[in-house]
Amino acid sequence: MFFMQTGKVSALTRLKKVSVPVKDIASQLWCEKQMELYEMGGFYSTPAMTKGAAMHAIMQEKVMEKLTIEPITYPDRLYKWAYENYTSLINLRKNGYCREIRMYGSINGFRVAGQLDEIRIIDGKTVIVEDKTINSKNGTNNVGLRIDVDKIQLEIYKHLFDDIKSGEYTYENFINSNGILQMSMSTEFVKGLDQIGIKNELRRLDIIHKLMFEELKKLPELSNILKLRYIDRQTTQILTEMDIVYKRETLDSYLVEAMKYWSGDREARPVSEENVWRCKMCKFFGKECKTWWKE
Ligand code: SF4
Fold first, then answer.
1. pLDDT tens, residue by residue, 75-98
2. What is the mean pLDDT of residues 255-260?
3. CB 141, CB 129: distance < 8 Å
4. What are the boundaries of each domain within the chain?
5. Residue 262 and residue 9: Cα distance in Å, rounded?
6. Which residues sit opposite 240 in a β-bridge?
7. Cα separation of 33 and 39, whole Å?
8. Is 20:274 a contact under the CB 8 Å cutoff?
9. Pocket of ligand 1 from Cβ distances under 6 Å
10. E strand or H helix that includes residue 195
């Protein structure tokens, strides 16, 4: 389902994206304009996020069976994500723990995608965990600043996951909206799958996604408690862990407003006057964005 209204250019089209990233929707809460400026530069990734990504990769390697072949095309990459999701979800049911699961869904008619950090089975329920890395030298101040953004990100994952569990968003929705049946993986990648022993019947984009969706549906009921952890970037020690109670109504009203930007109903908003202090931490301040710049 791809939403487009006559006479309006959606932000997805302008930013040349195939789906709305979950982290972008959450970052709109901090500053929509900043999120857009990062996206216009290629992709949304702050220096802190780059350092965080390195730590996430280390944590992921400890628990994940990685597909050792490098994808060449976008369909190859989709396959790799789906295969790794599938094997991680099987491990989750066995071991009660897995990391880096790619989630797909639809919000207000838009394709949405993101990668949640961790899933755990706790007391018979499926619990979503999000890790944020921080520089411990800045301590709890650093934790507090973006906490609302981090909470929203967790809640969006829960929303997408609930939709898959309830059948609101299905394997068929995913296949159709992404045109999976019209895609082909590169010959080299498929040859690589063969060489590492992936069975013939698993070497198909549709089949691997079907299995992935089936595994997601088999998981125990989702907990309404979401876990948010702040981790020291250098030592990977957990500094703070908090439980967030999921409230669907609050999230829904946030999403209605946030998606108006993606549909092209309105332009990206800068921060409000009460949040001008955020501009001092923004790399675009006084350059690409002069909204609050006093020359
Ligand atoms: S300078 Fe301020 S308003 Fe402009 S993008 Fe950065 S945070 Fe947003």
1. 999 999 999 999 999 999 888 999
2. 96
3. no
4. 51-251
5. 9
6. 230
7. 10
8. no
9. 31, 33-34, 37, 270-271, 278-279, 282, 284-285, 289, 291-292
10. helix 187-195
